[in-house]
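Researcher: Predict the fold of Hydroxy methylglutaryl CoA reductase 1.
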Amino acid sequence: MLEKMPKEVVEIMAMVVAGKIPSYVLETRLGDCRRAAGIRQEALRRITGREMDR
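Model: Structure tokens for Hydroxy methylglutaryl CoA reductase 1 follow.
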């Protein structure tokens, strides 16, 4: 999945996983709800080690 994501998205996701950026501020910082939701979902998958049901 990493090969499909732009470097910027990977960096933001890493900051969310590391706790440097709270996931609830992604919409405000990115200005794009769908993009923020995708980043949040992937970050949560990495933190928990589980897939999210859609």
